Amino acid sequence: MRTPRVFDPIYYFLLAAPSCIAVGDQPQQPASQKEAQVNVPQTQTPQAPPSQVKPPTNPAKAATPAKPRTVVLQMADGLRFSPPRFEAKPGEVLTLKLQNDDSSHQPHNIVIVQPGQVQEIVKIALDSVAGGAAPGAPLNHPAIIAATKDVLNPEGKDSLTFTVPSTPGIYGYVCTLPGHGLVMYGALYAGVPMPPLAKDTNIPQATLEKGLVGGGRRPFVQRFFMPNSGPASIAVALPGTQNYCFDTVECRVRYAWSGIFMDGSQYWRGPGKELGELGDSPWWTSNAFPIKFGKKNIANTDLKFLGYTVSPEGPEFHFQAGKQDIFEKVVSDADGILLKFRLPGVKESVVVLTDSEANWESPEGTTSKNGIAIPAKKASAFQVAVRPKTPPASAAVTPLPASAPQPSPALSTP
């Protein structure tokens, strides 16, 4: 009897495997070519020593050009650019989307210039027109970084793409049509921090207020995305020179500043993520909810905003702290503001929490290191004055004449 032959599994697999299986990266040749090469003598090519073999080199791919960032720049009423200033990175590629929305139907152009050269270019443009050139015609000067080729007529649109110089600095942009350049200019901050609006000497303060939120009207109320505040904030310009931000999430005044109100052009012309830009730095910033009932501090979870009403003095906010209704109105007071509180039905004393950033005073309470104690019998209606320790030296704000129409509160939510 013949003994059955036993195959090793690996050996059997190799025998059964199809002949098309390739080993490693060895390219396979057709059978006809293999047979034709069986008895062909092979020429041996000398091989270089391993130390002399150069690795294959891959040519570097060309760098992808940076995609320009778009900045919308409006030519607006009153011979002004909106926004009057903006920021960029040194070396950044920008595309200015230009639109002439000047309702006085005046043509405009824009010229981007080196730092400190705005008025020099304005003078050269005037001399050029005096010499017979067309108003707004392109200029040839080493201080010019970029410029529109043609004048932008009323309701016209154009774009201008250029690279911001790599040297940090404050670059100007200006309309060079006769009579425009003295007031119609702005500032591009490249790698340089921007000062508060009221202290910026690189933008025309004479026309700045026309482009502010509310157009310089007071009182004025606007829901907005505000710096260092919750997503549902309300900015208020009070009669006189005081302004403040009210956070409707934490139901408190976040901060107050004086002088110029706020520039919202970056938000309105952007993707909706920009914050309002204050006219000046706050002279006071609050740290917490200002009222304490007895020994209990109020948590944000205990607060609920219920809305506001508007009077000639400004808005009065209505919110709840637990079950207690609170009404708060902020009005102008000398160099600061006055916080007027109403707590209907309150039966216990309250403490107004103060801080060291401002001077605090209340005719109804007693001041101590822990705050201002308001007795229960006076807690239903009291007021607290908050004044800067150093009176701010802000730009003066001219109020509208008494006969001017008062603005309606802006109720739109950003």
Topology:
Blueprint: H1 9-16, H2 31-36, E1 69-76, E2 80-82, E3 85-88, E4 93-100, E5 111-113, H3 118-130, E6 144-147, E7 157-163, E8 169-174, E9 185-190, H4 205-208, E10 220-224, E11 233-237, E12 242-247, E13 252-258, E14 262-263, H5 265-269, E15 277-278, E16 284-285, E17 291-293, E18 303-311, E19 314-321, E20 324-333, E21 336-342, E22 350-352, E23 358-361, E24 366-368, E25 371-374, E26 381-388
Parallel strand pairs: 1-4, 3-9
Antiparallel strand pairs: 1-2, 4-7, 5-6, 5-8, 8-9, 10-11, 11-12, 12-13, 13-16, 14-15, 17-22, 18-19, 19-20, 20-21, 21-26, 22-25, 23-26, 24-25
Structure in words:
There is one protein chain. With 414 residues, the protein is mostly beta strands. The longest helix has 13 residues. The protein has five helices and 26 strands. The protein starts with 8 loop residues before the first helix and ends in a 26-residue tail after the last strand. The strands form six sheets. Strands 18-19-20-21-26-23 form a six-stranded antiparallel beta sheet, with no helix packed on it. The N terminus and C terminus are likely disordered. It folds into two domains: 142 residues, Cupredoxins -  blue copper proteins (Immunoglobulin-like), CATH 2.60.40.420; 176 residues, no CATH class. It is 9% helix and 33% strand.
What's a quick, concise take on this entry?
The protein has 414 residues and is mainly beta. 9% of the residues lie in helices and 33% in strands. It has helices at residues 9-16, 31-36, 118-130, 205-208, 265-269; strands at 69-76, 80-82, 85-88, 93-100, 111-113, 144-147, 157-163, 169-174, 185-190, 220-224, 233-237, 242-247, 252-258, 262-263, 277-278, 284-285, 291-293, 303-311, 314-321, 324-333, 336-342, 350-352, 358-361, 366-368, 371-374, 381-388.
